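Input record, target 12 of the design panel.
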């Protein structure tokens, strides 16, 4: 039996090498794309997680384990031993062993040591006192100082002999930044207060250090180690008093000396996470590991080896939670494109198998008539296909693994195996379904006259009800959870299984709607053909009547190509609307933040001629002046409010041009009676607090004015915030209000030229730069790229599906044209016949795709929030991003399908005309 099958396979491969090669290319390409997608998603998600941890800073992402001073009732020797490097190093190793996976500690950037429990005031007269207050220092005896620093002057500190609590002099080093700010040099002596007003601890500075990796966790987990801080004392004064706070770095062996200071020392172990080992698919175990360290079993193990009062603190859990919310918003949207593209790819594989089965229908029918069993026939076809598909799938998998490094391996292997299995099973299954009954001639398939069976009707209705119910459930879920802030409110509004089910609904929604549309359109397709048959029969020419008759001769499996086209068009329309909504949200938010295409703002009044200089800058169209006072007070209770003085005509034109709170210029002009209240445009919060009655406003510089709110707008160009008043600047300070802000509009603004014109007197913000800042995570940019790639792949497979559908009927069409040409049909009439024959199905797919895409967006928009993809968390409060219909995304793919179908028909007619009629007739008879 095996020899017979092997012989069958060899013969088939030799007789049809072209078909085998085409199948291998299709399987290899599909397997490569299927395997590359999960690898790319893993890569972007991992990069996004690492970027989130890096942006959070080492101070938040590191885990700080701290233990208090050893029990004061212990002998002094035991207290000192507990602070020595030997004991701390042993505990450090045990704490590392207690860290649960998958959290990995970067041992090269982690450290341990002893620090003073608070800052200590030092009264040495040579240390600067900005406000007359003495500087303060913190003492650190941290491990690894030599490995993480470069000595710029002097030497590293060391401990001579056994340092105890009674030691009076120790050595220390300071960073170069600390030395500059506190005027410390090698040999400087700092006197640190000790307990019970005893003699001060003398700290002699022996070296100035430069961090080898200033951004690393060793120096950045506690920034005070490398950079001193100028601390402001809380005070109602506009210029509160300040003092310097710096760090003195002792030798680790000198840590017992801290027992004699005025504050109790604290033992600490600083654990820096290894960002290279962070993976997004480990997010839940990572979160659990951090929670275990903060207040779980891992903290208990750390306490067992250190002190019962040991505490752990970190901001890593907040960072992971923020990233999880971002991923939850981005993931379902990407999966929409992935599922849509995968559906189209599967349909194409099934169509390829169906095309092969149809081409070999006579051969397979003859084998069945001669006694071949269904099992034997399916086995031979499966072996024949597997010989080609399995190596091709393995080749595609290998190409994907090489092309997209990083990421997990199991998911790509499963994806490629699934593609290979579908490719292997398509031909045998189609053959078994078509040849269940032994017959020599296939029944006539005429969509315009043949009625579907009851079994098919029941199956279609069941599928229709399931799909419609799922879409309605998603829509209701999105409306109910519309207040959520995650990227997909309907999908991620609740945790657990329901949230996962919501994510799946979002991913499957376009496919489900495509299934509904395909079933409905296939059912409705015969109706217009029947309506057109009678009028076409009365036409003088035969081309119109014949083309309609040919259009009605469609296969029962026409649902597959139509489903592929509708799914691809729907996914493309959905993807285009997503990307358009993301772009519009970023543009709108950047415009709200800047107020125009560029914003030039100074700390005080801008130079008088600056506006004219900016107008002469290339690309600048208009420059609108405004005086923005952020320290104005409103009403008798002196409520802080931002007051903007503008020229009404110019400012109204700017507001109308930008769409930020347009208003009639006349409503804001100063009245002729200067004693009347000054009209004001206000934000909703200010209007709600003040109403329409006149009230006073006290600018920071200038006399009090009385204003009355005449218009309310959510946004205004001059003030990025939401609490503002805008008035005619002619009514402020006797018409001599200062200019602090210039709002610039124009195309292709030159940032460098604007900054040169502004000079050092002002800062320049560009809307384009602000917009670029909103893509702050590789997860967002990666999601957009994956989305575009998935949509492009889906459209490509849809085109392939259309070509397969046309290729299926190509031999029959060629033979028909050849016969008609022997009866006098001209080449022009032949082209017209093929075009008119393909137009009904192409129009059905194009119109149905556009309508399905529009319906999908309208149905799903209540459950989709694009804010997570469009904007970072810092800018999300400034505005959301909703899913809106993009006409271009609906029209372009549909038009492309229509043009492709017509183009293929014209090309086939042209090619058939070049070949001889006798050859085509023989080919058609042979078929």
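The sequence produced for target 12 reads:
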């Amino acid at each position: 039996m095996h020899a017979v099958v092997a012989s069958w396979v060899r013969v088939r491969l030799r007789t049809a090498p072209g078909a085998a090669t085409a199948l291998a290319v299709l399987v290899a390409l599909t397997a490569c794309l299927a395997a590359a997608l999960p690898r790319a998603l893993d890569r972007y998600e991992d990069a996004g997680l690492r970027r989130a941890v890096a942006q959070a800073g080492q101070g938040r992402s590191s885990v700080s384990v701290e233990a208090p001073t050893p029990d004061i009732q212990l002998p002094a020797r035991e207290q000192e031993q507990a602070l020595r490097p030997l004991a701390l190093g042993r505990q450090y190793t045990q704490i590392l062993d207690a860290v649960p996976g998958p959290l990995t500690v970067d041992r090269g950037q982690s450290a341990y040591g002893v620090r003073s429990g608070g800052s200590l005031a030092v009264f040495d007269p040579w240390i600067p006192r900005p406000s007359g207050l003495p500087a303060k220092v913190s003492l650190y005896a941290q491990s690894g100082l030599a490995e993480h620093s470069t000595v710029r002057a002097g030497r590293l500190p060391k401990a001579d002999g056994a340092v105890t609590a009674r030691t009076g002099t120790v050595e220390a080093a300071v960073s170069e930044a600390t030395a500059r700010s506190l005027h410390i040099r090698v040999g400087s002596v700092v006197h640190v207060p000790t307990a019970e007003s005893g003699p001060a601890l003398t700290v002699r500075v022996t070296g100035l250090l430069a961090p080898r990796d200033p951004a690393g966790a060793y120096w950045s987990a506690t920034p005070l180690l490398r950079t001193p801080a100028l601390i402001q004392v809380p005070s109602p004064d506009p210029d509160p008093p300040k003092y310097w706070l710096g760090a003195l770095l002792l030798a680790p062996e000198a840590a017992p000396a801290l027992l004699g200071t005025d504050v109790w020392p604290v033992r600490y172990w600083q654990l820096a996470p290894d960002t290279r080992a962070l993976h997004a698919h480990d997010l839940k175990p990572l979160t659990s590991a951090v929670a275990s360290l903060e207040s779980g079993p891992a903290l208990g193990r750390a306490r067992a080896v250190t002190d019962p009062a040991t505490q752990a603190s970190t901001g890593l859990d907040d960072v992971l939670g923020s990233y999880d919310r971002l991923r939850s918003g981005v993931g379902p949207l990407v999966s929409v494109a992935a599922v849509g593209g995968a559906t189209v790819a599967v349909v194409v594989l099934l169509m390829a198998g169906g095309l092969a089965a149809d081409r070999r229908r006579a051969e397979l029918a003859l084998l069945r008539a001669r006694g071949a069993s269904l099992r034997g026939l399916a086995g031979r076809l499966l072996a024949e296909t597997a010989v080609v598909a399995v190596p091709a799938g393995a080749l595609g998998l290998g190409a994907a693994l090489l092309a997209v490094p990083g990421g997990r391996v199991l998911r790509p292997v499963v994806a490629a195996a699934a593609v290979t299995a579908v490719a292997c099973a398509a031909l045998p299954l189609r053959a078994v379904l078509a040849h269940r009954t032994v017959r020599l001639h296939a029944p006539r398939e005429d969509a315009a006259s043949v009625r579907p069976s009851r079994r098919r009707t029941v199956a279609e209705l069941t599928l229709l009800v399931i799909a419609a119910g799922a879409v309605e459930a998603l829509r209701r879920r999105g409306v109910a959870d519309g207040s959520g802030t995650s990227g997909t409110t309907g999908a991620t509004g609740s945790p657990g299984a329901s949230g996962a089910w919501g994510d799946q609904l979002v991913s499957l929604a376009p496919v489900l709607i495509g299934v509904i549309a395909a079933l409905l359109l296939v059912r409705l397709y015969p109706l217009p053909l029947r309506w057109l048959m009678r009028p076409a029969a009365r036409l003088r020419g035969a081309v119109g009547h014949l083309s309609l008759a040919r259009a009605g001769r469609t296969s029962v499996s026409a649902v597959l190509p139509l489903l592929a086209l509708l799914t691809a068009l729907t996914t493309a329309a959905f993807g285009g609307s997503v990307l358009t909504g993301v772009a519009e949200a970023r543009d709108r938010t950047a415009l709200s933040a800047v107020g125009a295409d560029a914003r030039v703002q100074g700390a005080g009044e801008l130079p008088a001629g600056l506006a004219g200089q900016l107008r002469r800058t290339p690309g600048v169209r208009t420059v609108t002046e405004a005086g923005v006072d952020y320290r104005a007070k409103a009403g008798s209770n002196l409520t802080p409010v931002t007051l903007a003085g503008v020229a009404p005509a110019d400012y109204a034109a700017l507001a109308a041009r930008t769409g930020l709170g347009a208003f009639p210029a006349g409503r804001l002009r100063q009245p002729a009676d200067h004693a009347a209240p000054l009209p004001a445009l206000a934000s909703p919060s200010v209007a709600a607090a003040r109403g329409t009655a006149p009230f006073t406003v006290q600018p920071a510089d200038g006399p009090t004015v009385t204003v009355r709110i005449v218009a309310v707008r959510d946004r205004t160009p001059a003030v990025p915030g939401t609490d503002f008043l805008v008035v005619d600047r002619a009514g402020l300070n006797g018409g001599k209000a200062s200019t602090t802000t210039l709002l610039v509009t124009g195309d292709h603004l030159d940032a460098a030229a604007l900054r040169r014109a502004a000079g050092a007197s002002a800062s320049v913000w560009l809307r384009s730069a602000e917009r670029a800042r909103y893509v702050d995570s590789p997860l967002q940019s990666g999601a957009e790229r994956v989305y575009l790639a998935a949509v492009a792949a889906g459209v490509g497979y849809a085109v392939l599906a259309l070509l397969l559908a046309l290729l299926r009927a190509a031999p029959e069409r060629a033979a028909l044209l050849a016969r008609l040409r022997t009866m006098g049909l001209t080449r022009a009439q032949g082209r017209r016949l093929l075009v008119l024959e393909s137009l009904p199905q192409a129009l059905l797919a194009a119109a149905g795709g556009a309508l399905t895409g529009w319906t999908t967006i309208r149905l799903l928009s209540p459950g989709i929030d694009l804010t997570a993809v469009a904007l970072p968390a810092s800018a999300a409060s400034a505005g959301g991003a909703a899913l809106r219909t993009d006409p271009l995304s609906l029209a372009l793919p549909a038009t492309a399908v229509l043009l492709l179908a017509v183009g293929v028909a014209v090309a086939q007619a042209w090619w058939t005309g070049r070949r001889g009629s006798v050859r085509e007739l023989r080919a058609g008879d042979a078929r």
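Residues 2-43+323-586+777-926 form one domain.
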